[in-house]
Specification:
Layout lengths: L7 H14 L4 H9 L6 H6 L1 H13 L1 H4 L3 H24 L2 H8 L2 H12 L6 H17 L10 H22 L5 H23 L7 H29 L5 H7 L2 H13 L7 H20 L11
Helix pairs in contact: 1-12, 1-14, 4-11, 6-7, 6-10, 6-11, 7-10, 7-14, 8-10, 8-13, 9-15, 10-13, 11-12
Length: 300
């Protein structure tokens, strides 16, 4: 895939749109769970089709991509495990808690960017860190209709793994997108199955259940997973990890609106909303008041 140098605004809008797509990712996951697919099977099955598509794309360009195989593998493993953790978190804990815990990503991304990419953190990003940690402490302090469980830990870890992977994408911009996406998809499938075994709620999949998942998996892959993965991986080659993490907050808005309407049993308490507003509000301050960075093309 040929990467053109976009404007900062276009790259940022790609992240906003790509992340917003993931705001409804929980819907097919919960649907498959209600259809009888236990454990992390829904996450694994929804990501099999992208494995095949990105593998064909990658091998079609193998002579150009094989020199970046090692870096693509590491990036794919990290970002894929992040998505696997996030997907499983959406099954085991409430949609909003999983989403908000993942979106502490700007904290980890900013710290990694400072240490590894030698970026300077603005006071707005430090405010985002303070607000995010404060919101985290309130969010997990109790008072929710859904008790804290292993899904909350997975949600928190997913943001950390994504921040590390995003930093590597920015640091190694010449690694081809199709190969990264292929390894990412494989990592999601295997990571989800591994997490299901770790939790101990991974039953065997029947043939009927698999056929139930096929049409849903194809639709979600074509309209959500594949476009979202392409947009996010591509745009991160031009924007800092901290900026990407903050722009991806569009998913929170979509997840909040859909979950509050479709899952009345998971409505958050007043205290949890305070924590959520701290996380979202502090990050919005950084977006609104930090001068827009320039989009930098990969070095060739």
């Amino acid at each position: 895939m040929s990467l053109q140098s976009p404007s900062a605004n276009f790259a940022s809008m790609s992240v906003l749109f790509g992340a917003a797509i993931w705001g409804v990712y929980w819907i097919p996951l919960r649907h498959l769970e209600e259809a009888g697919l236990s454990g992390a099977w829904p996450v694994a099955l929804l990501n099999i089709a992208p494995v095949l598509l990105f593998a064909v794309w990658s091998f079609a360009n193998w002579p150009k991509h094989r020199h970046h195989l090692g870096a693509a593998l590491i990036i794919g493993l990290l970002t894929g495990l992040a998505f696997a953790l996030y997907g499983v978190a959406l099954i085991y804990t409430s949609v909003m808690r999983a989403t908000l815990l993942y979106y502490l990503t700007p904290i980890w991304a900013t710290l990694i960017g400072m240490y590894w990419l030698h970026e300077k953190a603005t006071w707005q990003r430090w405010l985002a860190i303070v607000g995010g940690l404060g919101g985290l402490s309130i969010l997990v302090s109790g008072g929710s209709a859904v008790a804290l469980n292993i899904g909350d830990l997975f949600g928190l870890l997913s943001g950390i793994f994504w921040a590390v992977g995003a930093s590597m994408i920015k640091r190694l911009p010449k690694v081809p997108l199709p190969t990264m996406a292929m390894f990412q998809s494989v990592s999601i499938v295997l990571g989800a199955l591994g997490l299901g075994l770790f939790v101990g709620n991974q039953g065997m999949l029947t043939l009927d259940q698999m056929w139930t998942a096929v049409p849903i998996s194809l639709a979600v892959s074509v309209f959500m997973i594949i476009p979202g993965a392409i947009l996010l991986i591509w745009a991160q080659k031009f924007l800092s990890p901290g900026r990407v993490g903050l722009l991806m907050m569009s998913e929170v808005l979509v997840a909040a609106m859909t979950a509050s309407y479709l899952l009345p049993g998971e409505r958050m308490s007043l205290l949890e909303w305070v924590g959520a507003l701290l996380i979202v509000g502090a990050c919005l301050i950084e977006i609104l008041f930090t001068p827009m960075e320039q989009a930098h093309p990969p070095n060739h």
